[in-house]
Backbone:
């Protein structure tokens, strides 16, 4: 009985010592060994205690060891905080750990208070009762230490490991880490709320997953496409992305903030309803009882995104008349209106035949305005068509042989904020498409002019019988060229431009965001480029087509020269020059053939030029034309990946509907 009484008193002393141990301190009989990194029992007391009590005491000391580890991490954190090396997320995380330790201190305080105020000896704390009370705190502290060691060894932020630990199947484990995850994520939630409602990023410690390019220009194009970005899009690295923010949700958050900044740059402001929506979203998102998962933002962002996207689309479409600009590009820049194209090409040809250095802009401007007004545009389109202009790209070295045709180009100027849609890449495609279409229209007009020249001069040159076979063959080749180019223009206008325009217009009512509108417009332009420029994928096709157009222009010029030479000869035959009155002498009477010799030399020179220049030029042109047609028509899509071409089959079918080619 005396021995049991002694053990009981020793147990009371050890329980009192354990309260110090649980706080990382040394007791009277339990002291921490730095060398062995564990608590040791006093040797004298250890020799008198039964083995069961001694093992139980050392087992309870594990809670003190775990607490010391947590305290070491807290001290390390406090040092980093003093050095200003911790971001808001880490500060919130360690603040959450301190709150968990406060709960631990409460349990210790309750145990100590129970032990001091209890008058009944049988109800006082024993080693076994302390073991029961300390089981849950020990489990929590172990989990926290395990997490701190894991996140420190991985060298990454705390959000991703916390999210992974919160997915544990044990509710006790997941509950602890859900609390820590929520409190650590509050700074991220605050940044997101500020971004999606104000369009500003308050991120001094670079913890937000949306980054800002400070070197970006202030243009609307760069503001939308470059200034704000997700590093994941360019690098594919999801390390900086919170695991509860999937990539589609991150892109939606990025788009909302960009839209707000874009709306502000357009001189618009958000409606009061958005402020109410902000308070509602803030109260839901910062609710401590919320369960953080990958679907946390699904319902919260949908209403915000709908409101902002609708406001931005209305601003672009209605206030800045986006569709009117696109229609002007289709009809005038892409020469979709035949009346404008014919009127302008016929009106400007005289001016563009001049050397490039002799062209005056005001002359072409007057012709362009007249051609536009001839199409009788709607009143509301008159101001839009002021954006239709032209460029004259003079060579660096002055060359009088360069004509206006070679330096002229139609252009369409865009005013802010539509640069976000009409980007530099799209504008470049505009210029390339317009350049080819303008070149084709010029070739068509040249062939039409040549056809009228044939008709007007047919009777006059009929007496020159030796040129009739060549003129007949030239007329047939000219008809083939006209047929090819007119069919090509019709195919591009009606089967490509107008058809894709109808699809674009039918698709736009279903567009829900500014990005989708940009994508739809770029798809329309690229679809036209697919046929006009062959998608810029095969430079050989574009080169051959340009050679074909140059060949048509060369043929027209040669034929104009041939007709002019033939008309000159026909005029000489119809109205021979009057013989000169000379003094009669014997030499002239003996040789009176000067007129006959003069006529023979003119015809001889004509025949030589006909055979050495015109005939050879025609034969070469005819051969090259057939070769280029074969090259363009026989190009097909190969499955081996050597040459990938689409769209030519439709063009070939349209041009070769009667199997002529």
Residues:
């Amino acid at each position: 009985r005396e021995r049991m009484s002694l053990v009981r008193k020793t147990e009371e002393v050890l329980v009192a010592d354990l309260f110090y141990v649980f706080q990382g301190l040394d007791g009277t009989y339990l002291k921490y060994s730095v060398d062995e990194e564990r608590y040791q029992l006093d040797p004298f007391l250890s020799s008198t205690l039964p083995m069961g009590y001694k093992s139980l005491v050392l087992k309870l000391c594990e809670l003190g060891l775990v607490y010391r580890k947590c305290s070491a991490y807290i001290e390390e954190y406090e040092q980093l905080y003093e050095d200003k090396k911790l971001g808001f997320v880490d500060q919130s995380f360690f603040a959450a750990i301190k709150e968990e330790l406060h709960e631990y201190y409460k349990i210790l305080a309750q145990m100590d208070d129970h032990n001091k105020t209890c008058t009944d000896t049988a109800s006082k704390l024993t080693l076994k009762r302390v073991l029961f009370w300390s089981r849950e705190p020990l489990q929590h502290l172990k989990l926290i230490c395990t997490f701190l060691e894991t996140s420190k060894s991985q060298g990454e932020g705390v959000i991703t490991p916390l999210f992974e630990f919160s997915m544990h199947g044990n509710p006790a484990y997941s509950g602890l880490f859900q609390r820590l995850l929520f409190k650590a994520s509050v700074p991220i939630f605050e940044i997101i709320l500020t971004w999606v409602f104000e369009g500003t990023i308050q991120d001094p410690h670079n913890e937000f997953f949306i980054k800002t390019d400070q070197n970006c220009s202030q243009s609307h194009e760069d503001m939308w496409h470059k200034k704000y970005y997700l590093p994941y899009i360019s690098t594919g690295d999801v390390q900086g992305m919170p695991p509860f923010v999937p990539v589609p949700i991150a892109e939606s958050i990025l788009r909302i903030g960009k839209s707000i900044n874009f709306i502000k740059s357009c001189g618009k402001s958000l409606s009061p309803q958005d402020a109410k929506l902000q308070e509602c979203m803030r109260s839901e998102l910062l609710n401590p009882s919320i369960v953080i998962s990958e679907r946390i933002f699904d319902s919260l962002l949908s209403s915000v995104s709908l409101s902002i996207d609708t406001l931005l689309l209305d601003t672009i479409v209605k206030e800045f008349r986006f569709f009117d600009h696109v229609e002007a590009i289709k009809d005038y820049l892409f020469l979709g209106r035949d009346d404008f194209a014919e009127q302008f090409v016929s009106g400007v040809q005289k001016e563009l035949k001049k050397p490039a250095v002799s062209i005056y802009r005001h002359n072409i401007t007057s012709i362009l305005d007249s051609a536009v007004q001839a199409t009788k545009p709607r009143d509301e389109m008159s101001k839009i068509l002021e954006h239709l202009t032209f460029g004259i790209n003079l060579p660096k070295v002055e060359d009088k042989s360069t004509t206006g045709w070679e330096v002229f180009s139609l252009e369409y100027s865009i005013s802010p904020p539509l640069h976000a849609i009409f980007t530099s890449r799209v504008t470049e495609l505009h210029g390339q498409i317009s350049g080819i279409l303008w070149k084709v229209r010029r070739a068509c007009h040249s062939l039409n002019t040549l056809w009228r020249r044939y008709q007007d001069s047919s009777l006059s040159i009929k007496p020159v019988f030796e040129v009739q076979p060549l003129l007949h063959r030239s007329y047939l080749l000219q008809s083939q060229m006209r047929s090819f180019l007119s069919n090509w223009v019709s195919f591009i206008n009606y089967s490509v431009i107008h058809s894709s325009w109808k699809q674009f217009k039918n698709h736009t009512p279903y567009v829900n965001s500014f990005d989708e509108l940009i994508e739809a417009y770029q798809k329309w332009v690229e679809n036209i480029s697919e046929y006009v420029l062959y998608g810029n994928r095969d430079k050989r096709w574009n080169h051959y087509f340009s050679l074909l157009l140059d060949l048509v222009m060369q043929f027209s010029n040669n034929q104009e020269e041939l007709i002019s030479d033939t008309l000159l000869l026909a005029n000489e035959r119809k109205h021979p020059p009057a013989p000169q009155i000379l003094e009669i002498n014997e030499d002239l009477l003996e040789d009176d053939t000067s007129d006959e010799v003069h006529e023979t030399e003119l015809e001889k020179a004509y025949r030589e030029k006909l055979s050495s220049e015109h005939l050879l030029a025609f034969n070469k042109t005819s051969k090259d034309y057939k070769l280029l047609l074969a090259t363009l028509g026989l190009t097909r899509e190969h499955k081996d990946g050597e040459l990938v071409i689409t769209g030519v089959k439709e063009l070939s079918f349209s041009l070769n509907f009667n199997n002529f080619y």
Notes: The mean pLDDT is 81. The longest strand covers residues 388-392. The beta strands are 30-33, 38-41, 211-212, 228-229, 388-392, 408-412.
